[in-house]
Design a protein that fits this description.
Shape: globular
Strand content: under 5%
Number of strands: 4
Number of helices: 8
Strand order of the largest sheet: 1-2
Radius of gyration: 18 Å
Order of helices and strands: HHEEHHHHHEEH
Oligomer: single chain
Mean pLDDT: 95
């Protein structure tokens, strides 16, 4: 039941009129344009904007946008889809962290407190690398908490190599998100 409440609240905030406003500030149009150019060239390696190499940020955001452009078309919704979806994912991961460390009720309130947070909402509705970074960082913390053993009220910090590799993989994705 908690998952339904969290998903309903987060989807309402993050997906309502997601494609309505035009791309704004400097970064959204540049990021969206770069992904569109990469998709048109069918090039998943070199980020290019206005026929110039774009090395400002790593490529994860462009890859995500390219998949949503292929699904929803090259438009504002397609540019912002993954930011909203990963914002929803970060909210669910927050629930999981608080549920494991405390209890389900605390998890519910932690997740519901994150949903209306102003800058989190902005990041989750913008075609920028912030939402992928937040999601991947939260995923790394979630994996650490979920895979750790707790003894005497604290983690034993003895992760197996496989579990540690999962945590580091999530941190690697965070680096691919924003650098």
């Amino acid at each position: 039941r908690h998952y339904l409440i969290i998903i309903a609240a987060a989807m309402t905030v993050m997906f309502t009129n997601l494609g309505g406003p035009r791309l704004w500030d400097r970064d959204e149009p540049r990021n969206a344009g770069c992904a569109a150019e990469m998709l048109q060239r069918n090039d998943w390696v070199l980020p290019v904007f206005n026929n110039e190499l774009r090395t400002h940020k790593p490529v994860l955001l462009y890859w995500l946008m390219m998949t949503s452009y292929a699904t929803f078309g090259i438009n504002e919704f397609g540019a912002r889809f993954w930011s909203a979806a990963l914002g929803l994912g970060a909210v669910l991961l927050t629930y999981g962290i608080a549920r494991k460390l405390f209890d389900a009720r605390t998890g519910l309130w932690a997740a519901l407190s994150l949903v209306p947070a102003l800058m989190f909402g902005v990041a989750s509705r913008a075609a920028t690398p912030d939402a992928p970074l937040i999601f991947c960082s939260t995923l790394a913390i979630y994996l650490y908490v979920a895979l750790s053993k707790f003894e005497n009220g604290g983690p034993s910090i003895q992760l197996s190599f496989k579990h540690a590799a999962c945590v580091y993989a999530a941190m690697g994705l965070a680096m691919l998100a924003k650098g």
